[in-house]
Amino acid sequence: MIELSKKAKDDLKKVLIKDAGLDVVNKLTDEQMNRFGVLCLTAVREGIKIDAQGEDSEGI
């Protein structure tokens, strides 16, 4: 499994605290935080792939 850097997890925690609240974030383990971060990055990567494929097909 991919392991996020400490900085990446800290940055993710800051965003989640703003969006979900400190008490929610405090309930997450380091492993859960890592899995959530990897899930987010995977979703973004797939979205970029889809966008790129759409741009390729628009020229047809």
Explain what the structure shows.
The mean pLDDT is 92. The protein has 60 residues and is mostly helical. It has 3 helices and no strands. Helices cover 82% and strands 0% of the residues. The chain is elongated.
Structure in a nutshell:
With 60 residues, the protein is mainly α. The chain has helices at residues 6-20, 22-26, 30-58.
How much strand content do the residues show?
under 5%
Q: What count of helical segments does DSSP give?
A: 3
Helix residue percentage: over 70%
| Coarse shape | elongated
Number of beta strands: 0
Structural class: mainly alpha
What is the H-and-E element order?
Answer: HHH
Which features characterize this protein?
60 residues, elongated, mainly alpha
Describe the SSE topology:
Blueprint: H1 6-20, H2 22-26, H3 30-58
Helix pairs in contact: 1-3
